[in-house]
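Sequence in, structure out. Go.
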Amino acid sequence: MGAGHAHRLYRHGHSPVHALPPHTKLAAVFCFVVVVVSTPREAMWAFGLYAVLLGAVAYASRVPLPFLLKRLLIEVPFVAFAVLMPFVAEGERVDVLGMSLSVNGLWGAWNVLAKGTLGVAASVLLASTTELRSLLLGLQRLKLPPLLVQIASFMIRYGDVITDEMRRMKIARESRGFEARGVRQWGVLAKSAGALFIRSYERGERVHLAMVSRGYAGSMPVIDEVTASRAQWTYAFALPGAALVVCLLGWTL
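Output:
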C-alpha cells in the first residue's frame, strides 16, 4: 500500500470529517447502518431524523449536495425492485389510485427504500471523505483478515490497469477503422477479450514474481501506522450514537 490511489467517489477536502482516521469512520458507518437496519419500519419519523443526521455530516464534510446525489444513482436497481414489491407481494390488498396493492408489499418497499437509501448515502459520504488507500489501512487497523485486505488492494490497483489496457486496445481497433455495428463484429471483440485476459494473466504472474523476489511471504508490510485519539473516536461515533438514541425511541414510542 505504497502510493495513494484516488477514485471518482473521493472528493479532496480539509474538513473535520476528512481529517478523521479511516478506521474510526469505517466503524462509525458500520454501526450507523446496523442501527438503521434495526429500526422498526413503522417508525417513519425515525428515518427522517437519520436523514437529518447524515445531512449534518455532509455539511460538516463540505461535500456538495449535487456530488452526493449523483453518486446515489447507484441505488436505482434497488429502487426498481422496491417499486415492484407492492404489485407482487401477497396478503391484504388496498386500492391506491385505482391499483390493487399489497399492504405488506408497501411496507416492504418503504423498508427497502428508507434503509437502503440511508445505507448507500452513509457509504457515499465515507467514500467521498476517505481515500481508497486510507480505507485499506483502516480495514487493516480494524483487524480484517489480511488476505481479504490484500485482495481488495490488488483489485483496486490493477482494476485501473486493466481498464487502461482496454482503452488502449479500443483506440488501436478504431485507428484501424473498426466499428462495432452488429453481430459480425462480435468475433473481433471476442478476440480482444481473449487477448486482454491473457495479458492480464501474464501481468499478474510478473507482478507476483517481482513481489516474491523482493521478499513477499504472504503479507504486506505496514508502512503507515494509523492511530486515533479518544477525542477522534468520540467525534466519529457522534453519528451512530445519535442514531442509536433515535432507534431506541422508535422501539419505545
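Check: The radius of gyration is 23 Å. Residues 1-5 have pLDDT under 50 and may be disordered.
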